[in-house]
Amino acid sequence: MKPVVIIHAKLPDALLRKLEAHFQLVIFEKLSAETMPLLRQQLAAAVGIIGTGLRVDEPLLQQAPLLKVASTISVGYDQYDLPALHRRQITLTHTPYVLNDTVADLAFALMLAAARRVCELNAVVKQGQWHKQSESGYFGVDLHHKTLAILGMGRIGQAIAKRAYFGFDMKVSYSARHDKPEVDRTFQAQRAELDQLLSSADFVVNILPLTMETQNLIGEKQFALMKPSAVFINLGRGNTVDEQALYRALKNKQILAAGLDVYQSEPIATDSPLLTLGNIVCLPHIGSATADTRFAMQSCAVDNLINSLLYPNDPQKTVYRVN
Fold first, then answer.
1. Catalytic site residue 248?
2. Domain range spanning residue 238?
3. Which residue among the candidates 17, 29, 266, 321 is catalytic per the annotation?
């Protein structure tokens, strides 16, 4: 009998066939209160799990005595208890690289939409409120030749810096734990402390992961440091930003505008005060949501699972490990 793998996501048929060649599949296309008890039951025989959106913690792992590999179809792994996985010697894999350019593209979509008031003015036209005498009231701010602060200079940060420097003639500054000499040379960029970055930037793009250090890192004090003309973008994790402080900063014109793709709670509550503001663009966490990129992520996750389980010691088989 083939080893059991649990899939907690909807995968294309081609990838299912690839997995079926090696494993007995138990598939849950959606996670819900109805399906979770059955999934937990099936964990008893599973050597691998692949998907996204499942909280993999100690209580769940106690029901998975045979589990060897957890493959997440994402770059982030907030849902996984790393110490618990380590204690049980379970490999966690993720899907870096394949979404860098797609997320970087969205960063510029949000920057441009917020700076040029795209959503706000789209509504003006569609509601029949376009009046030529009001043209000056439609002014936004330029992106080109401005100063961009990138919070987090990893792979996605570098993809954003590339577009900023070569595409928009922007001055790039960034935060990182260590200097990035190649980034500095390639994009004429400069690493700086957070307060300095915020006070000097015209655009701030946050792509930080959620850690103990970054929890609510951007709050009232940080927004107060920003220019009144600044545009703030969050593509990292929702809980790195104090949303109440962001609301007050936008409401009181401490900053000009914002663009969000992530939130403290998702989906964002329909009664969130942020949704009442005209100077914010809100997207439903679509950072990597293109057909091409999602397939690439799914394919990478499938390969991670197969290679980890079947070829654990083969250096020619690529596996993107977290732990």
1. no
2. 100-282
3. 266
